[in-house]
């Protein structure tokens, strides 16, 4: 019997259950979805083993044909789900524009507030979140700069905020995989690494730009060295595929958003009602030209406008009502498509072929050229984003692949960086197609956007030891996998509440913003420094700061907040996973604790 002891055996020492629970909680960030007691040293970030469906040669001909037919149907279903997923993203962007376009235009009118770099940054974030399109936000900035409502110097922080706000789409997409702990860890870390990279780049370049105007001067040098020639539009492959469906649902007049910011709008509704002009001409005879009357060779009837052919063309609903309808419908379709994509990917990515695909995606060049693999991934990400004409679509497609274990975080990171570069090159080509009076301003704004992302790559990717977004995203992924409500808090704080608070303080003046925000930022930096020293050099700290145990539990642990959120949240959406419950059951049993070697 396990509990029986020999006469000469010494009974195991009594173990303190509370201490072991605390030990387990401290090491929970390094645990996988399988219990620590069962798996031990399993790496939670290792890509999962793909299922082997067996050799087709062992099956009969009928079974092989049936298997191939089912796989073909699954592949068609995957492509169809991906198509409707992209269309739903387009409709979601239209819904956000209908709900927040006028607010975005009104925000940009506050030229006094925009003179503050921090206010310009948060305004760029808020506007991009509201309209769900970095291209639309950039076009507003270009219009205001060309209309002399903004200077190029003021527009630089706004462009930085636009770059930060565009990462919200991948964060929303990752929430669809919160049902599985391992998938959510990988998917959310992928979306977080994009946002962390953008925020770290802003933290370095915003003070530097405010002090030296580096990006503005560098863009002026590049403009002076280049002879600008108006060019054509960038290839719009994705729009050509999705517009036949999305234009049947709704069409928007994006010039109204820029017009509301510049004050030149004459249309109160963003929904496009008229899509063309029909001109009817009646040709007369040249013999009717005479001395007693005018020549009636060509008599033109007044032009008629052609109505648009979409669901809301003749609707009397307001933009707010249409936006709410489109928001609910697009979110429903988006979630359904994501669930289908994940299920079909899990079903298709089996066997040796799937293993080979994953090996190719995450493969490195042989030594000594392994360092080139990441830079090739940057070029691939830039090229695919350039072809898709949307960084949001590209990043939203990468996140589910990370969740199912096809792409690793180390490989997704350079793909996201390449996506940032790809969307700026698209904006640069679009700027070259601008009218002559807006050409210089449009190109300079696009160059600033490109230089910002290029500087971020030089900061956080060129030197391997400085690739800080990867370990930070892993820590954050572990935290959100254990406490899933943290993902919602991160989403609200990063893209809504903190920008709104900073914008509200900026309305009170720069002195108020500095007086309130300065101490808070200093406190956060101090806490981060103390945490780093507690892990690396605790001897450098005074004894009282070597641990946070002297603080109340709710100030240094998420356990009280987790109990509160679990109690308030219905069902199991915010609760711990089955693995966490299993671990807690084991830790509550002293006999199991005494039999385990830690």
Beta strand count = 4
| Biggest beta sheet attributes | 2 strands, antiparallel
* Average pLDDT for all residues: 75
Strands side by side in the biggest sheet: 1-4
Q: What does this 3D model show about the protein?
A:
The chain is built from 25 helices and four strands. The chain is mostly helical. It has a domain at 81-250 and 321-508. The strands form two sheets. It has a two-stranded antiparallel ribbon with strand order 1-4. Strands 2-3 form a two-stranded antiparallel ribbon. Helix 7 (152-165) packs antiparallel against helix 9. The longest helix is centred in the first third of the chain and has 48 residues, at 61-108. The two termini are 22 Å apart. The model is unreliable at 1-40, 280-302 and 577-598 (pLDDT under 50). InterPro entries: Na/Pi_transpt. It is a multi-pass membrane protein. It is found in: Apical cell membrane.
């Amino acid at each position: 019997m396990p509990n029986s002891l020999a006469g000469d055996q010494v009974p195991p020492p009594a173990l303190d259950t509370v201490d072991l629970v605390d030990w387990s909680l401290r090491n929970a960030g390094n645990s996988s979805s399988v219990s620590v007691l069962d798996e031990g040293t399993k790496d939670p970030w290792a890509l999962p083993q793909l299922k082997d469906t067996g050799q087709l040669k062992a099956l009969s001909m009928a079974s092989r044909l049936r298997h191939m037919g089912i796989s073909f149907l699954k592949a068609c279903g995957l492509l169809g789900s991906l198509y409707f997923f992209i269309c739903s993203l387009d409709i979601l962007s239209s819904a956000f524009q209908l709900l927040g376009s006028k607010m975005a235009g009104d925000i940009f009118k506050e030229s006094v507030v925009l003179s503050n770099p921090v206010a310009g940054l948060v305004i760029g974030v808020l506007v991009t979140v509201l309209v769900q399109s970095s291209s639309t936000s950039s076009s507003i900035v270009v219009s205001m700069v060309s209309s002399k409502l903004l200077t190029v110097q003021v527009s630089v922080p706004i462009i930085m905020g636009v770059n930060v706000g565009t990462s919200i789409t991948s964060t929303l997409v990752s929430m669809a995989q919160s049902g599985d702990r391992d998938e959510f860890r990988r998917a959310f870390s992928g979306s977080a690494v994009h946002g962390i990279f953008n925020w770290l780049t802003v933290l370095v370049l915003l003070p530097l730009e405010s002090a030296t105007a580096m990006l503005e001067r560098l863009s002026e040098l590049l403009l002076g060295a280049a002879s600008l020639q108006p060019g054509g539009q960038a290839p719009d492959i994705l729009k050509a595929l999705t517009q036949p469906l999305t234009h049947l649902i709704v069409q928007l007049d994006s010039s109204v958003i820029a017009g509301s910011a510049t004050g030149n709008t004459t249309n109160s509704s963003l929904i496009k009602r008229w899509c063309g002009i029909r001109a009817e001409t009646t040709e007369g005879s040249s013999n009717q030209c005479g001395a007693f009357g005018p020549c009636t060779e060509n008599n033109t009837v007044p032009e008629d406008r052609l109505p648009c052919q979409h669901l809301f063309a003749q609707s009397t609903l307001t933009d707010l009502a249409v936006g709410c309808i489109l928001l609910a419908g697009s979110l429903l379709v988006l979630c359904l498509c994501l669930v289908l994509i994940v299920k079909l990917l899990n079903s298709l990515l089996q066997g040796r072929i799937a293993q080979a695909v994953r090996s190719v995606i995450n493969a490195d060049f042989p030594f000594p050229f392994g360092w080139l693999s990441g830079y090739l991934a940057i070029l691939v990400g830039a090229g695919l984003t350039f072809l898709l004409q949307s960084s949001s679509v590209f990043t939203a497609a990468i996140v589910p692949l990370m969740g199912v274990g096809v792409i690793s975080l180390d490989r997704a990171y350079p793909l996201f960086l390449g996506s940032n570069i790809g969307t700026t090159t698209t904006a640069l080509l679009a700027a070259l197609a601008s009218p002559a009076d807006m050409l210089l301003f449009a190109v300079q704004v696009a160059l600033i956007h490109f230089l910002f992302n290029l500087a971020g790559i030089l900061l956080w990717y060129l030197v391997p030891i400085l690739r800080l977004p990867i370990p930070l995203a892993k820590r954050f992924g572990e935290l959100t996998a254990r406490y899933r409500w943290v993902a919602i808090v991160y989403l609200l704080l990063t893209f809504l509440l903190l920008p709104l608070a900073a914008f509200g303080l900026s309305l009170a003046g720069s002195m108020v913003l500095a007086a309130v925000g300065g101490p808070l930022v200093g406190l956060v930096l101090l806490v981060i420094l103390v945490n780093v020293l507690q892990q690396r050099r605790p001897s450098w700290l005074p004894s009282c700061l070597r641990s946070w145990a002297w603080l109340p539990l709710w100030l240094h642990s998420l356990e009280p907040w987790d109990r509160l959120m679990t109690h308030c949240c219905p069902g199991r959406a915010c609760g711990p996973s089955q693995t966490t419950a299993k671990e807690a059951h084991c830790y509550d049993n002293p006999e199991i604790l005494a039999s385990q070697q830690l």
